[in-house]
């Protein structure tokens, strides 16, 4: 079993039977995904625009492949025979193919914005690529024919969920599937499954009822019929946050969905989910570590392995009897995968809070965390109706590169003068109990965002601020030259932007 540690830039190998850690080695910057092709591991290096090819036996570097400035490789997958490796380049929205033996690029296809999660069919003739950040009204998955130089065969679209079956309530809600981070093809090859956030951007005082905790962002499991591209099934996953990964059991009888914000894995009966009502055939929810972001199953032992970003670990779930006989009394163990933590203690503590919707201080029912809209410190690219907060319609601002208060007060209206003021959002829209004691929060004018300072009162709130302040680097632009300099066209545009005639500044 191989796993990557994005915050610590390492690769770890774990014996799938004994659960002993065989090695942990440093790799590239911000590894996002890993695939095994023959005797080598291929690692998508999101942070330094490349691919590490390493031996599975020891993790030794075979070759580092440059994928281009600003390419930000996202997901990587090998064909069933291990002959070819495909990588999605998040920055330019490109799918690239490599020969696994020569490690040379053999094809490239531009698809669209935020190309991400991959799934390859049984004979390697089709690759499915998810658009991570959806369009305003549709989630999109590109179906790529791999013959020759590769071509786009069709685009599968899942429309915004609405109507009576998705009426806003405590157990359902409207919205568009967004932040697609994982794809899984059913064992019979007839359907494609993904899980995602469901952003209800048509709710708010400008449209109808105000946003509330149940009806801001929900989670959804979606099945698409690959024969005609129609929606097979959508299941609202209640009291959940940030579905991050989906996988099938060894025989395809069960679907496993990692819930990043809830530190759990939801299990669905795949044979009944297409026709089930309500919770959609959910069998159980299994405990994992902090912020699970990946899940897979072992066909030999029936175990399930869950990668926990903030737990710095693998959760090993003994699911064989669950898959074989429906026994939900699943035991588990934890394997640490990070030997030396590189994050400062307060920053790590803050990031753990940032991702944790299961903490009642953050969210009353587990729907919302900071990472719900700001995954990896980025933006969900939604426009929200915050009229009730006196803000009006507001696009989510990315946190990366702002270094907390590096650009001045927070939000489009500058209504927060310290990062600790997010205590107000946690206590308000999130309906959490708050990270600060009530007595401290309501002392003086501290409950007002521009009132008495909140810094220095709550160690956990200060840790959250420390993490947000640590986000000093912006993503590299794929529209620059190979060395990162501005193109000639961009230089001309910069001159126009800064000229007194345009008054852009």
Tell me what the structure shows.
There is one protein chain. With 505 residues, the protein is mostly beta strands. It folds into three domains: 1-115, Methylamine Dehydrogenase, Chain H (7 Propeller); 160-336, 7 Propeller (Methylamine Dehydrogenase, Chain H); 348-469, Cytochrome Bc1 Complex, Chain D, domain 2, CATH 1.10.760. The protein is 10% helix and 35% strand. The strands form eight sheets. Strands 16, 17, 18, 19 and 20 form a five-stranded antiparallel beta sheet that branches. A four-stranded antiparallel beta sheet has the order 4-5-6-7, with no helix packed on it. The model has no long low-confidence stretch (mean pLDDT 96).
Query: Might you state the CATH topology name of the largest domain?
Result: Methylamine Dehydrogenase, Chain H
Give the strand content: 35-45%
Distance between the termini: 52 Å
Main pleated-sheet profile: 5 strands, antiparallel
| Category by helix and strand content | mainly beta
Mind telling me the CATH superfamily name of the largest domain?
Answer: YVTN repeat-like/Quinoprotein amine dehydrogenase
Spans of at least 5 consecutive residues with low confidence: none
CA radius of gyration: 23 Å
Query: How much helical structure, as a percent, in the residues?
Result: 10-25%
How many extended strands? 30
Total helices: the number is: 7
When the domains are counted, the total is: 3
- CATH architectural name of the largest domain: 7 Propeller
Globular, elongated, flat, extended or rod-shaped: what is the shape? Answer: globular
The CATH class of the largest domain, by name, is Mainly Beta
Please tell me the overall pLDDT. 96
